[in-house]
Amino acid sequence: MSKIRTILVDDEDINLNLLRMILEQHCPMVEVIESCKTPNEAIEAINNLKPDLVFADIEMPGMTGFELIEKVGVTDFDVVFVTAYDDYMLKAFKFSAMDYLIKPPKVDDLKMVVDRVVSKRRSNVTHEQLNELIRAISTRDKEKPRLALNTHEKIFFVNIDDIVRCEASGVYTIFHVKDGKKHMVSKNIQKYEDILEDHSFYRPHRSHIINLNFVKEFIKEGDGYLLMSDGSRVDVSRYRKDEILKKLGKA
pLDDT at position 224, please? Predict the structure, then answer.
């Protein structure tokens, strides 16, 4: 397998040197071909060197990492954004299905990101993903974010209010949407519990995450189960029966 030709972009030498050192020591499949301290240098390097992967700092003088990628235009390379910890921003990254790295980078996190890049090459950053990420970060809580669903065919966005339920299927998750369509994505259901927990979703059973707004009835038979607006039946774990009743205001 050929090396992943990589460009690093950060306005601080200490960050560039640390990232390069970890990549060289722990990610032998990565070849750093250029380190850039300004966005303009990075744009020139990307256009001239045609990298496979770019690590781009978000906060830089004069131009953000998002603006940098927008200015490059067609992104026929993978992008990993590097950011300081911000809970809201990290959740926005998860909604957009884009890769990110928290400063200072940890070895395990960096290896995981590189492994994802290797396994998916090249899915590329779509303009819709980037625009959705920027919108989610800039609007904060004013608008509900849309969720990127990465299927085998494409990446597309769904309004979270339109999701009826998520169903576990081995290492995959099936999204059931209110228009009756189903979408299978190659992530396990645990990944989405964290993303959706602040938006009227609840996991009543290990195999399901439900949108509470689409629950029609709670049936008390046995451990109990839920009847959803799409006609499906969702079992409730005996350990979560009291909690789901409180969520539904039926305690």
Answer: 86
Q: Is the pLDDT of residue 251 over 60?
A: no
What are the tens digits of pLDDT across the range 15-42? 999 999 999 999 999 999 999 999 999 9
And the tokens for 216?
């029609």
Percentage, residues of the chain above pLDDT 90: 44
The b-or-e profile of 136-164 (16+ CB within 10 A means b, else e) is bbeeeeeeebbbbbbeeeebebbebeebb
Give pLDDT tens digits for 113-159: 888 877 766 555 555 666 666 666 555 555 667 888 877 777 778 88
CA angle 217, 229, 201 (to 5 degrees): 80
How far apart CA 182 and CA 53 sit, in angstroms, is 32
For residue 8, the Cα-to-chain-centroid distance in whole angstroms is 21
Residue whose tokens read 């990101």: 113
Q: How far is CA 204 from CA 30, 165, 186, 226, 247, in A?
A: 42, 11, 22, 9, 10
State CA 17 to chain mean position distance.
Answer: 27
Cα-atom radius of gyration of the chain, to the nearest Å? Answer: 21
Q: Contact, 126 vs 97, CB < 8 A?
A: no
Q: 241: Cβ–Cβ under 8 A, 6 or more apart, which residues?
A: 223, 224
